Amino acid sequence: MATIEFSEEQTMLMETAVDFCRKQSPIERVRAQIEQPQSVDPAVWQEMVNLGWTGITVPEQYGGLGLSLADAVPIAESMGRHLMGSPFVSTTLATQALISSGGEALRERWLPQIAAGTPASMALTEEDGNWNLTEIGSFATLQGDQLSLTAKKCFVQDAPDAGVIVVSANVDGRARLIAIAADQLPPGALTRETVIDETRRSYTLEVDALALPVAQLLEGADFAAIERAALLLLSAEMSGGLSGVLHVIIDYLTTRKQFDQYIGSYQSLKHPTVQILLSLEACRSHLYRAATCMAQGNATELEAALRMAKAQGSEAFAFAGDRAVQFHGGFGFTYECDAQLFLRRALWCQYQFGDAAYHRNLLAPLLLDD
Amino acid sequence: MSVTQAEITEFEEQADRWFAENKPANPGFILPETFMEVGTDQQFEFLRNWQQKVYENGYVGMSWPKEFGGLGMDQVFQDIATKAMAKHRVPFLPNTIGLNWAGPLILAMGSQEEKSRYIKGILSAEDIWCQGFSEPDHGSDLGSAQCKAVKDGDEYVINGSKIWTSLGSYAKYMILIARTSTDGPNKYAGLSFFLAPMQTEGIEPRPIKKLTGEYGFCQTFFNDARIPASCMIGGEGEGWKVAMATLMFERGAAGGQAGGLAMMDLSIDDVVELARRAKRNGKPAIEDPRVREELVDLITEARGNSHMAARDKVPALATDWPTAISMSGKLRSSELKRRMCQFALSLQGANGARYVSSDAVDGGLWQRSYLNAFSGTIGGGTSQIQHNIIGERVLGLPKG
Ligand SMILES: Cc1cc2nc3c(=O)[nH]c(=O)nc-3n(C[C@H](O)[C@H](O)[C@H](O)COP(=O)(O)OP(=O)(O)OC[C@H]3O[C@@H](n4cnc5c(N)ncnc54)[C@H](O)[C@@H]3O)c2cc1C
After folding, report:
1. B316-355 residue pLDDT tens
2. Rounded to 5 degrees, what are φ and ψ at B385?
3. Structural domain of B95
4. Please, what CATH class does the domain formed by A8-115 belong to?
5. Which fold has domain A120-216?
6. Global ipTM
7. I need a surface site. Which of A60, A202, B256, B311 has the fewest CB within 10 A?
8. Does B304 touch chain A (CB under 8 A)?
């Protein structure tokens, strides 16, 4: 029987995160932050650093808390609940890349800085939007102890704030990872992208024959570990987002009247809202089952659990966002209505790291063929 | 009462062994899938004997009080036994209404005397129970029930009819709601709740044929039927309150059930296995990309349901709507089962159109299961009504 474990430590982390995000990210602040250059107010980021969140999965020897990625789930979920933008997810992903593939020198160089609060980022996706992390066009050639990198990477989160960006590129015909320090990027390498979720700060990173010391090439290239981390954290954000948007829907259904009745009394609104609730319960359950598998090192089940969480969550959150707009009538069509914030977030999450159809395709052999 | 891990492990092994060794052989006739479909005497006797054997060997009613026929043990043991039943796919226990609703209700609200009279017979299947709630004109709107109970001395005289009475022809007792008054402040106020003896002059259950062509439930007619006034549970006019408490047991939200399997379980694994064998256009169905996508979807949903049960045990992960999982169990599982069976037909090519017969895939089990699956989505409150209840009670949306 598959169980779900949630430790005392995780419970405490969750209580802190729920409280923090509620206070730091009320919806007016989310909207105000959209106008700002960064995804999060630097003072709020500093508080997150003080709580130890940037070092949550960084091993203790590098100044982190040394917890499992499963412990980052309640944090990402709470941030998702309040649409809080920040480099937390991309920093945690880059951390995972360095831990799983980095090699001692790169870990020592970057992990202590990350734990101390320097954001980090990942540059994986390219212009063609392919979700397969190892099918890439960017490349680096080796000349002596130098690498020459030619790359065009998209959806690089919070890139100008990152101290280090882990970039994927083909080296000798194999997909590898390279850690680039912020000060190595030539001027103009980063351009801001226009993306559907306005709480994000997304950049294209483009370099042409950028010379880098070969020591910056990560020893390993565990793309599967990076994908697992991304699926877990994105699912957590979606689970939080689903409960956030459900609150938005319920608030309107219980206050808006038409034909002398609260609109929530009409079944064509009530029943889909119940479906959204049940899809949230399913999403959260898949998420915490995946987190449990990850914490227990249950590799046999982990991949399927994560792909299920991402597939189910993507579809559920996008449906909830879509209905949230519709259920607000004309107001739902406005920028002022919060429904759009959640719908845009849902679409962002759906199309990052594989949508529902993509993961179902990959699930089929895992679940059906033996 | 603290239970050690050693005791748990030992009992797990014991239950596993007992059900492996005592699983009844195939009776040679088709069995019903739930208590709502017991249609022949042969089926009924087979299932009753099975429940009796399970009870005599101590695998049902384990957590119910000893003095009334239970074993007074911790609930964990019953859960283990119930799981072993599911694992070994043994037949279900037919006295479902007694074990899961009437029994818990009597234990919660009944007098000492009522508990002594009824509980043991519920567990042993000696006394079968049925439920007289729905009426021909009032089903979802149970509160408007019209079947009358008029007090006459120390008896009530019942007139009217109840319908869709599962197990009606075999039952010794019925949990009955009837109208004792019409001039209360609202429709609910005039209802009262009875533990009515079925072998009473003037009570006549008449079998109704189901959509599968088999029998399975009854219309129960009441013609000046006199039952003792002492059969009332709760006071006069408190029937709605008692009925709601019963429905909470029925929907699985209240706990306290005697345990045991209530239905034959068809799982998604059975559908996957069918997809390997069945052919669509000359090829195993499992090779069809659309079939694969739908199977993945169904497996995801089935696992989601079982993960929900697991998550519900972690209080820290209760969401902003902590009753959502427990209140939606029946809705989620019955709708999933209906979809699974419906989908199973599509795996069979033209043979999807067959029905119970030797030429049909698996003897027509899937077709029959699909038709029977509506018992779950209609009986016990329809899926639409479940949406209303969850919307109103869990999410706090206004009533329509
Ligand atoms: C196999 C089976 C076994 C059963 N066993 C028993 C039993 O042992 N004892 C017993 O008392 N009853 C039993 N029932 C009856 C069952 O509880 C009722 O059939 C059910 O509550 C629906 O009532 P109804 O049949 O009158 O349908 P109706 O209430 O007439 O419903 C017709 C349709 O309208 C919809 N509807 C009705 N009201 C609303 C609303 N407010 N909002 C949205 N949609 C609505 C329903 O969902 C349904 O689709 C059984 C039913 C079945 C199928």
Report:
1. 998 799 999 999 999 999 999 999 999 999 999 999 999 9
2. -65, -35
3. 5-126
4. mainly alpha
5. Butyryl-CoA Dehydrogenase, subunit A; domain 2 (2.40.110)
6. 0.94
7. A60
8. yes
